[in-house]
Design goal:
With 517 residues, the chain is α/β, with parallel strands linked by helices. The chain contains 18 helices and 18 strands. The chain has an eight-stranded parallel beta sheet. It starts with a helix and ends in an 8-residue tail after the last helix.
């Protein structure tokens, strides 16, 4: 989705405020680093860029973020994660790049000193300029200040020529300018459209996905570029009471056989759930859930066929998530987005695995009551409520680059609302993007498979009879922007996904057909 192309015609709010902010929004410091002119008495909002291309790049990022927190930087937002080609000195490995917004009481030069100490602690040496480094931390913005000294220039002088810097910087903003500080950052651009126009001038979103700039999500032992193909997640329910296949896979042998079937049919991921989340489902204990889950999970991760595939655990209990990841699960899929276990978000932050945050009101026993089905605009409200949850996740340490969002088809929605969600995925992304462009870029998962609304539309009472309708709903969702489809019938839905992906590739190759597609 090209949010920025929608932004430029509407940036008059920048133009009207530009003269005011250029005149009054920033102080100017021109000093030596030991000067007494230093800001440290109140919180300042800062933007810090991260880069790494030596050693375990992701580990370097994780360690840097932890050390930043310990050094007095409270991280509030994360950009997406990008794998980028090296600039200036090209004979070196690819980089990982991102950026964070943080709040600190450290003055500009104190902040610089803290970041330099972190670089040193993580093994950075002097080296050649623009050469390989385990970690690179640069201050892009510091409150409303401009700084010029022998050791520090803010805004960073090379922001405007580097797509690998501006891309994650843009992620930290929303399409709506929500504070004086953000308006001031826009005013630092030499262009009337602020940072939005600076990004478009470099090429904007058309650069993403090219060899030199890929938006990626760390998962398993690799980096996933979800723009290349839609992933199919096969469902394995270990419960006796799931709405579609309850009781079919309670035995270890039956569960393993079903995984073998789904993988042979082309599943990219397997989602294992031991707690039913159908409407009115009763909740079982953590111990019961683990007793069902762990023997199957251990057997599945040992299967030769599972090598190169991803395993997800479908749970809203933090203890189950933690145990499952320790046994080999790669992803935590939480239908409550942290609402049903107050420890979930902090636990997942420590696990450092991708987190699927789904929209639901209430819990499975209350989600379909009349109060939870009240929406004025279902797409806008789902986006807003989901954003609140993933913002909490960010503050507790789950970076935006580990988050996958699920609008929760069938959860706290009636038939008409589910249809609105399927057709309105771009609207959900756009609404999230008003407040966080990073989270608007997050992969989207949908799970319409065999759900009741399909039966109501097609007059199919038995869940197993809803596979053709599932294929149709998956097709609509993928063409609207879904990146993962969670399904019971892998074979038929994989064919639908392949066709949708081919159509999307054709659309990108021949943009002139866009209006007819």
């Amino acid at each position: 989705m090209h949010i920025f192309k929608q932004l430029l015609p509407g940036i008059s709010q920048l133009n009207g405020a530009r003269k005011y902010y250029q005149a009054s929004c920033f102080a100017f410091i021109h000093s030596c680093p030991k000067s007494s002119v230093e800001v440290h008495s109140e919180d300042q909002e800062v933007v810090i860029a991260l880069g790494s291309n030596v050693g375990d790049r992701l580990h370097n990022f994780n360690e840097a973020l932890q050390l930043m927190k310990k050094s007095g930087m409270q991280i509030t937002r994360h950009g997406c994660l990008y794998e980028t080609a090296p600039a200036y000195v090209t004979d070196q490995p690819n980089f990982l790049n991102s950026a964070v917004r943080a709040v600190t009481k450290l003055g500009p030069h104190e902040l610089l000193g803290a970041l330099k100490r972190i670089e040193k602690d993580l093994g950075r040496t002097q080296g050649i300029r623009y050469g390989p480094r385990p970690i690179d931390l640069d201050i892009l913005f510091y409150g409303k200040l401009k700084v010029r000294s022998e050791t520090l220039t803010i805004p960073h002088e090379r922001i405007w020529e580097r797509p690998f810097v501006i891309a994650p910087l843009m992620d930290l903003l929303g399409s709506a300018i929500d504070s004086d500080v953000v308006a001031c950052w826009h005013s630092f651009s030499t262009l009337s459209g602020g940072l939005f126009e600076s990004w478009e001038k470099l090429g904007g979103d058309s650069l993403i996905g090219k060899e030199g700039l890929k938006r990626v999500l760390p998962i398993g032992n690799g980096l996933w570029d979800w723009s290349t193909k839609t992933s199919v997640m096969g469902i394995l329910n270990l419960t006796p009471d799931s709405f579609s296949d309850g009781g079919k896979f309670e035995s270890l042998e039956a569960a393993v056989s079903q995984v073998q079937l789904m993988i042979s049919e082309g599943a990219d991921m397997i989602d294992i759930g031991a707690q039913s989340t159908r409407p009115m489902a009763s909740r079982i204990s953590v111990e019961q859930e683990l007793d069902r889950l762990i023997p199957v999970l251990e057997a599945v991760v040992r299967m030769p066929e599972v090598e190169g595939k991803l395993v997800s655990v479908d749970t809203f209990h933090s203890e189950v998530a933690s145990e499952a990841v320790s046994k080999g699960a790669h992803i935590v899929n939480d239908v409550s987005a942290g609402q049903l276990d107050s420890n979930m978000l902090s636990v997942v932050a420590g696990l450092r695995v991708p987190y699927i945050a789904m929209h639901m009101r209430g819990d499975p026993s209350t989600m379909q009551n009349s109060e939870n089905l009240q929406y004025d605009d279902v797409c806008k409200q789902v986006a807003f409520e989901l954003l609140l949850r993933v913002r909490d996740a960010e503050v507790l340490g789950i970076p935006a680059w580990r988050i996958i969002i699920d609008p929760g088809i069938g959860f706290s929605k009636n038939t008409e609302q589910n249809l609105d969600i399927l057709m309105g995925l771009p609207n959900i992304q756009e609404e999230i993007g008003r407040r966080s462009l990073a989270l608007s870029h997050a992969p989207i998962m949908i799970g319409p498979s065999r759900k009741k609304f399909l039966g109501e539309v097609c007059n199919r009472k038995a869940a197993i009879e809803r596979d053709p309708a599932t294929v149709a709903s998956v097709t609509a969702g993928v063409l609207a922007g879904a990146n993962i489809v969670r399904v019971h019938n892998v074979r038929d839905n994989l064919d639908a996904v392949k066709l949708c992906d081919a159509m999307r590739r054709q659309k990108r190759a021949f943009p002139q057909i866009k209006k007819d597609f």
